[in-house]
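Quick board copy: two proteins, each given as sequence then tokens.
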Amino acid sequence: MEAQLNGIRLAWDEAGTPGATPAIIFVHGFPLSRASWRPQLAALADATATTVIFMGKRTFGELAGIAFQIKDDIFDYQEKGIIGKPTGNDIKEKKITLPLLYLLNHSTRGERLRILRLIKRKNTNSDAVRELVDLVVEKGGVEYATQQMNHFREKAIHALMEFPQNEARTSLIALMNYITERKK
């Protein structure tokens, strides 16, 4: 089955009693395709006497994964010790994540060159890393990343609305809220 919702192509296979609750929803992605799961659909539906749904990789799972990654990027700009991950760790590893990318895109050419030099040459210097972390926060990189994370959360939740209201859908919505509201 396929549907198009707000520019998102939803694809899924379903077996069992239509509308039966609770439904079992499997969300998967790379490297497997929906076709690899089709043989198990009927057996699972028969064994559980419910609806079994396998969602394709370009739907909920992908959107949830993006929101999860952005949240992880945001953690890099939290105070040290809050989550157990050292502040500025991505900068130390020369990773340009969404908050830092926002800073680069909203800097003058001269500022951008200086920032990139700090990342490339001073990434192990704690003062330089602290300066970059502070700059990202001050210039709105964390705020922008938070907005984008919430945007992907809303798209993921919207993608679930195609499915019947049941415990599985409610659980996936709760998962999306946990992903974006988690403290570590």
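And the next:
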Amino acid sequence: MIQYKYAFNENDKWIDVKSINISERYNCKYYCVACKKELIPKLGKKNERHFAHKHDSDALTCSSETYLHNVSKTNLYNLLLQRIKEKGTFILKYKIKAVCERCHFPKHGLKNCEVGDTVETLDLLHYFNQVKLEKTIDSFRPDLSLYNEKNEKVFIEISVTHNVEEKKIKSKNKIIEIFINNEDQIKEFGDGIDQSKLKVVLHNFRPAKKRIEPNECKQKLSKFFAFKSGRFKIITGMTFFEYFENKKKYKHSLIYENDVSEEDFKQDSFLEYLKQTVIAHQNNIGIKSCNLCVHHTLRNNYYVYCRHFGKEITKITEAVECELFCIDNPKQLVLPDFKL
């Protein structure tokens, strides 16, 4: 037996079964929101109050999905109508991906940083002062439509078993789609539509962005820098702001930069230095590194050995201060085998 919490009375007034007292039980008639057939209120103390079809045969043909859809949109319509008359508010609370607008520099390999979800609020009645139930607009018949004197509008669609049609979405009209699967969710309308309490999808709304402070930025850069003096260094894990601070700091001496894999650098920093110095040299960058010197040997395909001083080189930057540094034949200079 289908049990409903809401019905219309003989005056088309919206009735919650909990609001009916015993005297009204037999003095009024109630009708189903879905099939329009007569209902009777069940007000017993043992079971929860509800409406039931007067005739069992009507219950068999009544659609609970249609009931839920009609109840949801009618309840929401009455609520919006009341708030408009009271000149009150009706808040839409929705989640958006918070991103850092300041980091969007594609030419530097930077994309917008996602810093988690943030909740935005929008008072729908600040922009719209009229509401219609199933009003045809632009060949569409939304469940509800909010609009104003400027002909600005937003559709509200209740989805029980069927989602919003693709045609409506492609119309570029703003649509708030609310998914309902039980009567208890209708109570969640309350003072507005809250995406944390209901499944709500916004169609054709321009996503907002949250500006964040520099210390919140999650975008990281790792770079190999080479300088006029022949020196070089790798800096990993820089934020966008730190990267440009370094560019500003070295603007008179910096002659070259290249991307570095932070993961590779963590696995083997020395190997990454060997790789980056050779790449820089192949790009005709005048840097001084022991592994580029004619006196070096790459032993065991890994560490650098200086034949002149007869020792292993632990810091390839020693070449900057070495008077005997002499660049190797570029044709003989190759990258080490990185598959160790």
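Board note added afterward: The chain has eight helices and 19 strands.
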